[in-house]
Amino acid sequence: MLGKLTWSAIPLDQPIPLFAGGGAFMIVLAVIAWAILSGRMGYLWREWITSVDHKRIGVMYVLLGLVMLLRGFVDAIMMRGQQAFAYHNNGFLPPEHYDQIFSAHGTIMIFFAAMPIMIGLMNFVVPLQLGIRDVAFPTLNSTSLWLTATGALLVNLSLIVGEFARTGWLPYPPLSELPYSPTVGVDYYDWSLLISGVGTLMTGINFVTTILKMRAPGMSYLRMPMFCWTALCSNLLIVAAFPILTATLAMLTLDRYLGFHFFTNTDGGNMMMFINLIWAWGHPEVYILVLPAFGIFSEVISTFSGKPLFGYRSMVLATLGICIVSFVVWLHHFFTMGAGGDVNAVFGIASSIIAVMTGVKIYNWLFTMYGGIIRFTTPMLYSIGFIVTFALGGMTGVLLAVVPADFLLHNSLFLVAHFHNVIIGGVLFAGLAGITYWFPKAFGFRLDERWGQAAFWCQLVGFYMVFVPLYVAGLLGMTRRLQHYDVAAWHPYVIAAGFGIFVLIGAAICQVIQIVVSIRDREKLRDELGDPWDGRSLEWSTTSPPPVFNFAVLPNVSGEEPYWEIKRRAILSQQLAAEPDYEAIELPRNSPTGFITAFFSTITGFALIWHIWWLVLLGIVGAYAVFVWFAWRDVEEYVIPAEEVARLERERRVIRQRWLDEHKQLARVAA
Amino acid sequence: MSSTTDTLFQAVEPRLDPYRLGRRVRTDHGGDGHFEPTGHGEGGPASKRVVVAYGFWIFILSDFVMFSAFFAAHAVLQSATAGGPSGPELFSPTSIAIETGCLLLSSFTCGLSAVATRARSLLWTEAALLVTGLLGAVFLVLEAHDFAAMVAAGAGPQRSAFLSSFFSVVGLHGLHVTAGLLWLGTMMAQVFAKGFRPNILRRLLCFNLFWHALDIIWVALFTIVYLIGLG
Amino acid sequence: MSDHDRNVGDIGPGVMEDTQESLRGAVFSYSIGLVLSVLLTGAAFTIGYSGLVWRPGLPSALIVLAVAQIGVHLVFFLHITTDPDNTNNVLALAFGVLIVVLLIGGSVWIMEWLNYRMMIPTPGGMGHGGM
Predict the structure, then answer these.
(1) Domain boundaries, chain C
(2) In this structure, which long-range contacts are made by residues A519-526, counting pairs with CB atoms below 8 Å and at least 24 apart in sequence?
(3) Whether residue B32 sits in one domain with residue B59
């Protein structure tokens, strides 16, 4: 009746996952109960859960990412703790548990923390920067969000029902095949990623279409903000790479469920084929993560240096170059697998070449800052921290691209330190910078600057304290994922890394305090104007938060930094542009399609994991029924009448005119 | 910031868009001397039909990439027969030829349905769609029959890696055809119930793209999976 | 977004409204596509199952026929042309084709070298030489 699911699936004998998972679900239930009992459920359902507005969806993505970042960070604390203790003893985590922790850490951090944060920021910002009202396919956007949430839910469910994979974040066969992983762990991984992968692919399609086919009038390709260029390239990579992930995990799933022989030990299976295919996805994936990060830094650095981005065209070329070349380097993840010198050489050289384009970008950022008037706000601090840290991480990457060196360093802690270096220095710093930078636009008030800077310094120092010792331990030969070890030379470095974790815990605490304090002090931190940073791109021309339709009238773009032009003109002439003719605006209606599809996907995924076949059928039929019901609706849009548009727009103009009047002295400076 | 650094950087930084890359191609529709930028989105957001068609086109390309991962696996595993039967021993040319004919013809009738839709003829649209669906169903039945025969002869996907990859890549295509037929049925119902509204037209356009793409995949499939092994 | 084409010079893929004059022309286009495809398919099956082509050259010949037929499908069924209005669609297709070539070509190249160096046995005997 219930497939493989029995009461023994609940880990009553393992206190850590039981309390962690149980506790987390208690909190979730408590939040839902509070929402219902305080009467807020209707608001949440109408305004957020069924929203197809890119701004709301972006906020929810980032929220999901931040929560999962904390969960992944807890896994990291346990891992560092285990390794710090486990010198000549077994530590406090038995191997089968430790294996699940490092697998979950990687999976959650990449798929459910980093990706959602980057995608969330792209969701919120790109349509605003392009000067349009929403993405190409708003309901599809909502579905993408909720399918990603489904994946996150399934992975976390493995804490209290069953267990997670023990294979590492990429489930190499034959370990991930049925004979060596007979439990549901790898299945949780497979289905969670197959489902959320569909969501991510749809995001890719959505944004490629939006950026290529929907921009404000006059915004040619070379007038797009840099963040939109990197968003375009990142989403092109999503469209090109995620199908490979889906295919490869599907092959593994076929092996496990139907006894196929893609990657099995016997009957002709080729285990290395998995590694080849999964990294053909895996390498573009890291560029999917880091390209939006580059875009965020382009925006932040140019805003807080008070200068336009240096070398815009070379930045565009570099980004496109990275996009293409990222598809010819994937073998550098398995130099040691034995393809031979010729193959290794080609991919090694390509991996070194791709660093050149990132170097171009770094020089452009430096030249943007040079000669500018730099304001050391939190986002700018993260940018400077990024430039130093990412350059270091990139260099260790090029070192690893040297094949003979990689033969010694493959799968050592040096590798682990390298990729954390680039991901933390690149993606995490960018995520935090971007969240701080665009938070006032989303919520109408800024984040507290002092706690933000405290968090930054803890992040920066903590990162180096944890990972520099790991670089050294790696060079001394320490392999990754060790549950215990007894080499004396490694011990001091592992201990040092353990201490560094406390500083990172401090960073997390500062981050949480920052949010609490900012909400408490929101009136003091209120962003009245809508342009708290003296921004240069179109999102800063709207109110904070923007109205649901973003722009009353789509702006006419005539230069590379459209909003900067508008601002200059307004300041010089001491008046706003003429009032446009207001028209009624049609917007897509909110829809529960995304949420309900994800609901049925969760059921289907869970049922597939536990082999509850009748429930699988129910879930699939349910999902299809939702699709048909959605496709049958007659009224797809609602109209905001011209008077309402005019009213909201005039409110915005009043605020802006008041700001102009209060800052008359700027006209003298600018003239 | 001094004016010398200003001019220095202005000299260093190339003029934006000197080759008018943002406006390279213009067409003079109607020949009235007024040139419109083409397809570069400068006229504002494109119409819904263009946006939907383009988005679906990108989806189809992503589907091609997914198929190519299975093709790659098949290319690597095609000789991994583990002592079991290989391709030429198993495939019947007649069956494959009939399946190919069915799918090709269905692609043609799908195109005819697009013409009928342009003419806003409900009868001929539904008729052409119906024939498309029937041909697709025949294709599926034949393929299922072939699969069953192979399994019964001990040459199922569990026999060897070659057979696993064969069943997967051909089966994935069959799965897409099945989903396509489900979609086709839904579209026929929608056209009947709602007529040729703009959103129905957009969906028919997407279905056309999908069905033709399936035939393109089949061309690659029968060439690489069925025929190349004969060499 | 309105439904009528505001961007005169932009065409979505699969749309033939602006490239064909009449319904008859459209049917003609599909018919040509069908005939060409049938010919190419017939040719592929013929050379596959008869001895007309030198065996070692068969894969190349079949691939040429397949590419030609895919081209026929793209032009006559999907109406992808080199018209400047179609540029975005062609570029997207080119990107997709690039990825497919890199993935299949790269994987085959890597795995062949791997199988050779790891001496993975093939049905013809031990994996040796032949690179």
Answers:
(1) 20-78
(2) A521/A448, A522/A443, A522/A444, A522/A445, A523/A445, A525/A440, A525/A445, A525/A446, A525/A447, A525/A448, A526/A444, A526/A445
(3) no
Based on the fold, state whether residues B25 and B100 are members of the same structural domain. Answer: no
Same domain, B14 and B79: no
B43 lies in some domain: no
| Cα A67 from Cα B81, distance rounded (Å) | 48
Q: Are residues B82 and B181 in the same domain?
A: yes
A with B: how many residue pairs have Cβ under 8 Å apart? 167
**Helices within chain B (DSSP H only):** 3-12, 48-77, 87-90, 93-118, 122-152, 161-194, 198-221
> What is the Cα–Cα distance from A515 to A521, expressed in whole angstroms?
10
Across the interface, do B160 and A213 touch by the CB < 8 Å criterion? no
Task: Measure the CA dihedral A113/A115/A118/A123, to 10°.
Answer: -110
Each residue's pLDDT tens digit, A291-338: 999 999 999 999 999 999 999 999 999 999 999 999 999 999 999 999
Cα A432 from chain centre: 11
Tell me the pLDDT band of A578, cut-offs 50, 70 and 90.
confident
- For chain B, how many structural domains are there in total? 2
Question: In this complex, is the C-beta atom of A236 within 8 Å of any C-beta atom belonging to chain C?
Answer: yes
The H or E element that residue A665 is part of is helix A665-670
Q: Tell me: ipTM over 0.90.
A: yes
Give yes or no for a cis peptide into A217 (omega within 30° of 0): no
Do B29 and B76 sit in the same domain of this protein?
no
Residues B7 and B114 placed together within one structural domain of the fold: no
> What are the phi and psi torsion angles at A69 (to 5°)?
-60, -40
Chain C CB contacts of B44 under 8 Å are: 6-7
CA of residue C95 relative to chain centroid, distance:
13
Q: Are residues B176 and B93 in the same domain?
A: yes
Examine residue B42 and state whether it is found in any structural domain, yes or no. no
Residues from chain C contacting residue B107 (CB–CB below 8 Å) = 34, 37, 73, 77
Query: Which residues form the domain of B127?
Result: 48-230
Q: What is the C-alpha to C-alpha distance for residues A487 and A88, in angstroms, rounded to an integer? A: 8
Q: List Cβ neighbours of A649 (8 Å cut-off, separation of 6 or more).
A: A552, A553, A582
- Cβ neighbors of B104 (< 8 A, separation 6 or more) are B215, C34, C37, C38, C41
Q: Say which CATH number the domain at B89 has.
A: 1.20.120.80
**What does the radius of gyration of chain B's CA atoms come to, in whole angstroms?**
25
Per DSSP, the three-state class of C64 is helix
Residues B221 and B121 in one domain: yes
Chain A: closest CA distance from residue B200 (Å) = 9
* Predicted pLDDT at A621: 95
Q: Considering only CB atoms, which chain A residues are within 8 Å of B54?
A: 209, 212-213
For A146-157, b/e burial (b = at least 16 CB within 10 A) is bbbbbbbbbbbb
For residue B86 the two structure tokens come to 């290989």
Q: What predicted TM-score, i.e. pTM, was given to this entire model? A: 0.92
Residue A81: exposed, middle, or buried by beta-carbon count in 10 A (0-12, 13-18, 19+)?
Answer: middle
